[in-house]
Amino acid sequence: MSDIKSLTDALLRFRDERDWQQFHNSKDLALAISIESAELLELFLWKGNEEADRQRIKEELADIMSYCLLLAEKQGLDVKDIILDKIEHNKSKYPVSKAKGSAKKYDEL
Amino acid sequence: MSDIKSLTDALLRFRDERDWQQFHNSKDLALAISIESAELLELFLWKGNEEADRQRIKEELADIMSYCLLLAEKQGLDVKDIILDKIEHNKSKYPVSKAKGSAKKYDEL
Amino acid sequence: MSDIKSLTDALLRFRDERDWQQFHNSKDLALAISIESAELLELFLWKGNEEADRQRIKEELADIMSYCLLLAEKQGLDVKDIILDKIEHNKSKYPVSKAKGSAKKYDEL
Amino acid sequence: MSDIKSLTDALLRFRDERDWQQFHNSKDLALAISIESAELLELFLWKGNEEADRQRIKEELADIMSYCLLLAEKQGLDVKDIILDKIEHNKSKYPVSKAKGSAKKYDEL
């Protein structure tokens, strides 16, 4: 079994043991992802680029990714496929010839 | 090779072909995760819980998870381990006996 | 009339001419505030602390504050009062003797 | 004195008594706005549109608006002007004839 599949299964098991499926509509899962992302962001507030606490980065990243896996599962999306598709899509938005060494957005390149 | 490892490798290859490693400090990766999460959230704005466009959910989820994988890699974190650790941690924060069927936060249970 | 009152009135007039009150429940207004805040954040992505475009900061700040004024109005909150109350509250959370020159959160002081 | 001016003055006084101006660069103020916005959002997580705690909405709105006022002041922006300008701008993006009763984004109208 793939590791994404086994992680998703572990998350679903945790959820179902608590009867939480009833709360996990797609909109609230999207809220949860934003909220956890802001908790990650807070670790860097008023700090230098590499000054956040690594233990807490670890926990917040785990939370964000867990809700992402749950939303992907709810939507019937294969995480591996959607990331590989997005990389392909970004290759045409950000061709190496234009994007190399530049932090500009594709519409400013 | 695991899924997560092969996705991370594809993301690093995409990044390095464009010389973008120089921009990818941990703080800005955390910003990118929050920004992409809000783009996901926007798909649900003024809408019902399941009314967002699935194609766009797919793309925004891919963006969020891509930056999460890049930040995990930068911090030397194993995504599988950190999610499994967090599930274990949450089992004690949210024991089935207290949390079943409740959407309350652990400190209100 | 106070500035805040006249701004709120202008926002309500804009909203009501478009029959948008029906969409403006408190939860979606909170989503809108988060989404606009992330658009502000994006202006700083991969950039130095003072490198964002001032014209766009202006527009995003206006959007965030507009939704804040609309949510305050919906909740029957007086913006001036709630900010002054919060400053008083923060004075005890962050006493000058402890907080001076420190960026720590109150629970780490 | 206008109420926005007097609130900004109170916030600056609070900040300067603690020597916090050194931390308040524009990028971190934008982070703070996003973080506080997500704290507001969290009050609605797994809840109906009007089920959040009003006392806590009050506090989070105050935090968001305080950081907005501080960023506006740092950028030399007049809050009243920028909101009135944005309303004018939105009048052309969302003409009543097209936008009435519709929650669509301007580029989908």
UniProtKB/TrEMBL annotation, chains A, B, C, D:
Per its UniProt record, what Gene3D superfamilies does this chain match?
Answer: MazG-like
Q: Which GO terms describe its molecular function?
A: nucleoside triphosphate diphosphatase activity
Q: Mind listing the UniProt keywords for this protein, alphabetically? A: Hydrolase
One GO term of the biological process aspect: nucleoside triphosphate catabolic process
Family matches, as InterPro entries: dCTP_Pyrophosphatase, DCTPP
Q: Which Pfam families match?
A: MazG-like
Q: What is this protein called?
A: Nucleotide pyrophosphohydrolase
State the species of origin.
Rufibacter glacialis
